[in-house]
Write a structure and sequence with these properties.
alpha+beta; five-stranded antiparallel barrel; 3 helices
């Protein structure tokens, strides 16, 4: 049986385009040229993907998405730059919402959590709170331990 991968486009053109991984470790990364590469993720991996694009008038697109890669046979959401698709855990668009979501990732890292191991349910909570401009609850070690135990049982 062949292995399925989720392919993520990474690109950097100074002052015009920057698509990058905020967190997550791909199983492989292939350089296409000096400005572009492809990151490959196995099903079930969680990663953060930032897409920023500007023109002579300023920022046109700024989007931060936390996704869980999945096999193509499942119902997937289409996210630009992610092929064949993924399960969206958090989607923030626009300056204020993206900054707030990225700040929450910094908070998680400061508290000692690896963002790719955080509970998907927590990311859904953060998505809802960022979208509605409400306070975000802290992610605690007990919640994290419960998530890791459940994930271990499921595998």
């Amino acid at each position: 049986m062949s292995e399925f991968y989720t392919r993520v486009e990474i690109a950097f053109y100074p002052e015009h385009l920057n698509h990058w991984l905020r967190f997550g470790v791909p199983v492989e990364q292939h350089d296409l040229d000096r400005r572009r590469s492809l990151a490959l993720f196995k099903p079930g991996q969680v990663f953060g993907y930032v897409r920023w694009q500007a023109n002579e008038y300023g920022t046109q697109v700024w989007r931060f998405t936390i996704v869980k890669s999945a096999e193509p046979s499942l119902m997937l959401s289409h996210i630009q730059g992610v092929d064949p698709g993924c399960e969206v855990l958090l989607l923030a668009t626009g300056n204020a919402k993206v900054k707030r979501a990225l700040l929450q990732i910094d908070v998680l890292e400061t508290a000692g959590f690896e963002p790719s191991d955080v509970s998907p349910a927590y990311y859904r909570h953060v998505h809802n709170r960022v979208a509605t401009a409400r306070p975000i609850r802290d992610y605690c070690h007990a919640q994290h331990a419960a998530h890791l135990a459940a994930r271990k049982l499921a595998s």
